User: What shape does this take?
Amino acid sequence: MLNKKEVHPKEKSRLHPRNKHRERYDFKQLIENCPELSQFVKMNIYNDESIDFSDPYAVKMLNKALLKRYYDIDDWNIPENYLCPPIPGRADYIHHIADLLGSSNDGKIPTGDKIKCLDIGVGANCVYPIIGNKEYGWSFIGADTDTIAVESANKIIETNSFLKGKIEIRSQNKPNDIFFGIIQKDELIDLSVCNPPFHASIAEAQSGTLRKLNNLNHKKIIKPVLNFGGQASELCCNGGEKRFVTDMISQSKFFSTSCFWFSTSVSKQSHLKSIYEALKKTEAVEVKTIPMGQGNKSSRIVAWTFLPQEQQENWVNTRWKDML
Assistant: This one.
C-alpha cells in the first residue's frame, strides 16, 4: 500500500545556487544517459520514482548517470566496496570553494588550468577533480595512500580523454604524511580540498551505517551494508575526523607559502573548537567557515591561509591576473 504522495520543493534550496543538482532527479533523462540505471529505478512508498539508496549498486549507477549527464564522463567505474560519494554534496564543496577564490580576487572566480588544486584523498572515484575541472577548468593533483584507488583514478582519467593532462594522481607512500611527499619543491598550489576520514574505527563506521540504513528503510537493519561503499582508509583513521583535520592543519604550516588556501570539509560541528584551536596555534592569518547543507544534513568547509594581505595580493597578481 502506497503512502500519500509527498510534496517536494522544486529546488533543493540548501545547495549552492550554481549547483546543477538543485532540482529533483529526472530519472527519465538520467536513464537516457545511462540505460543501466533503469533496473534500479522504482516507485517508492510515496509513489515517487527513486532508487533504493541503501543499495550500493543502485547508488553507484546513479553516480555514473549523474557524471555522464552533467560532467560528460563517458566511462566511470570504481572497484567494489570503494567509496561512491554523493555527487550533489561534492559539487557543493567545489562551488563554495570557487567563491572563496573569487573573494580573494575582487569577486571574480579564477578559472582555467593555470589554477592548480590539490585533492587530499582523491579516492578511486576522482569526483572532486572531475567536477572542479568541468565547472571551472582547474587542473588537479589527486593524492591517495591506497594503490587500488590510485589505479582506479588513473583509469578514469585515461578513459575520459578531456581529463588527460588536467588531473595528475600522486601516490602517498607514508600514511601519516598529508602534504609531505605530495607537494613538490617550488610547486605552487592555489587551493587544497579534502573530505577527511570521518570515523575513528570500522566499528564506529558500521554503527553509523546501521543508523542511516534504518532511517532509509524505515525498519531495523541488523547487518551493515555501506551504501556509499568505502575502504577502511576512506572511512576511518586513528582519532577520526578531528584528529585527521588537526594533523592536516599542523602539517600545512610547513607549506605556508606553497598553497594559498587550504580547506577541508568538517562533518561534526563539535570538532570545530579543536580545529579552531589548532589554527590559532599554527598562526593561520585568515580562517573562514563556509556552511553547507543537503537535505536534513548540515556540514561546513573550514578554510585557512598563512599568507598576509600583501602576499595574497602578490599571488593574485602573478598567478590569477586576467583570469575570469
